[in-house]
Amino acid sequence: MACISPDGKPTESGTKMLRALKSGLGSAEEIAQSTGLPLFRVRSGLRELTQAGLANQKNDKYEVTDKGAELIE
Amino acid sequence: MEEVKEQIISLPRLGQPAPAFEAVTTHGVLKLEDFKGSWLILFSHPADFTPVCTTEFIAFAEIYPELQKRGVELLGLSVDSVSSHIAWVRNVEEKTGVKIPFPIIADLNKEVSIIYGMIHPGQSKTETVRCVFIIDDKQVIRTILYYPLTTGRNMDEILRIIDALQTTDANAVATPANWRPSEMVVVPPPNTQEMAEERLKQGYECVDWYLCKKKL
User: Is the CB of residue B203 less than 8 Å from the CB of residue B110?
Assistant: First the structure.
């Protein structure tokens, strides 16, 4: 898991992505641009965050879930 | 008598879509489609903690900024575990100061190696040879290079191929032997007699109607 540590907490890159989602950015491209992470990392990270229930996917856009938002407070 | 079933796999060829994969890497689970929109150099090495591979990884890390300027990502592969990859890249950084910034596939079950034809039993039955697959932003294979176990790759040539392919795509031209960026490019040869006659009047630098060059 690149975005979520074995203890369930988001890694540095996972936290960056969740913060970007919380700020309203929704597409992988927007998140890559704002975080400075490579687009391929963001795409795989969003997949991981979604599988972990920390983000939801709607078409090509993502949003942070309540569980995801709690982890970055 | 026991029936032996053998799966025949068609190896990747130039101009065809790159075979899809999902693989465990040092940067998490990655799919080929995660790289869509970027060019990708997928390359294999025989094994972690080996001398030639270490020099190659340092060299790939050194050209990574130049590749990024050209919209190209790097993805390494060997049949070692992800723990071995992590230990090796940490060791490379500790001993040489070079950080390996790109992911490496841990292809323990050889899934990716097999579909990309990276294992050449004449060289080694267990290790991948030094393959380079240049995959464009539409995920089409544009170049395949194979190097033997004993010969480290030439990074200048890899960069030169990227420059040549991207120049060809942008300008509908070809590039001559030993071409370097800013040098003259080859105009595609005419297809008809009429075009051949017109070609010589178009102001190109021509040896004859079939070999004309121009500046970009």
Answer: no
Q: Does B39 touch chain A (CB under 8 A)?
A: no
The yes/no answer on whether domain B172-216 falls in CATH 3.40.50.1970 is: no
Helix (H) or strand (E) segment spanning residue B124: none
CA distance A43 to chain B (A): 6
- Is the ipTM here above 0.95? no
**The predicted structure's pLDDT at residue B2:** 62
Residue in B29, B34, B42 to test binding to A, most A beta-carbons within 10 Å: B34
Mean pLDDT of B3-29: 88
Q: What percent of chain B has pLDDT over 70?
A: 97
CATH number of A18's domain: 1.10.10.10
Torsion of CA B90, B161, B14, B64, to 10 degrees: 20
Domain B22-153 CATH superfamily: Glutaredoxin (3.40.30.10)
* Domain locations in chain B as residue ranges: 22-153, 172-216
Sign of the torsion formed by the C-alpha atoms of B30, B151, B145 and B158: positive
pLDDT tens digits along B18-47: 999 999 999 999 999 999 999 999 999 999
